[in-house]
Design brief:
The protein has about 200 residues and is of the alpha+beta class. It is built from six helices and eight strands; from the N terminus they run αββαααβββαβαββ. About 30% of the residues lie in helices and about 30% in strands. It has an eight-stranded mixed beta sheet, with helices on both faces.
């Protein structure tokens, strides 16, 4: 290997740095805290929310939330796991950007009481905008179950394109479910106008 290749490799940024606090027009995205456990358990204990997520079992309780929160709230993981909060710091959902199998993966969910207000698009756009500032050459992969049209619509608005379709096991549904895989290049990212 020559010195030019070694120099380029050593200066490449591989992580976006610590999980930030991001303020959007109506929301504050912040690192998770252990005190978010009850709100997370209430949100993910709702089957209408959990059924759209691959890795959330049912039933889901406070101990499940704590088991998930401890490594994420500790700051030891290289991912961004942002709590979506309203002005009064009420935890209403999450946006996660995590390295998985050599790719950056985006995942997100929102408490059902806050659906249909444009919060998810606003939160994901805010997280992606900051992420791409720190990782300007990263590709972000995501997806949604085929029956989750709201989530697919969020991704479409932000510039994601469909790259594959497959079956993915859903813990809450306890079966394989048709799944749409998507990808976003930094240059394709679009920040939509407020709904």
């Amino acid at each position: 290997m020559n010195a030019a290749v070694l120099q380029k490799t050593s200066s490449t940024v591989t992580t976006p740095g610590p999980c930030p606090v991001i303020t959007t027009e109506r929301l504050v995205l912040r690192p998770h805290k252990i005190t978010d456990a009850t709100a997370i358990a209430e949100s993910l204990g709702d089957f209408k929310v959990a059924r759209m997520l691959a890795r959330v079992p049912q039933p889901y309780d406070r101990q499940d939330a704590l088991d998930w929160l401890v490594p994420h709230a500790s700051g030891i993981l290289p991912d961004w796991t942002l709590a979506i909060t309203t002005g009064d710091d009420t935890h209403i959902g999450a946006v996660c950007l995590e390295p998985r199998r050599g790719q950056w993966r985006l995942g997100y969910w929102l408490n059902r009481l806050y659906w249909d207000r444009g919060y998810m698009t606003e939160a994901v756009a805010g997280a992606l905008e900051r992420f791409f500032r720190r990782m300007p050459e990263a590709q972000v992969f995501s997806g949604a179950f085929a029956d989750n049209l709201a989530s697919l619509n969020v991704q479409k608005k932000l510039g994601f394109t469909i790259v594959d379709a497959n079956q993915l096991f859903s813990l809450s549904r306890n079966r394989l479910v048709p799944h749409i895989e998507t990808m976003l290049l930094p240059e394709d990212f679009r920040r939509p106008a407020r709904p």
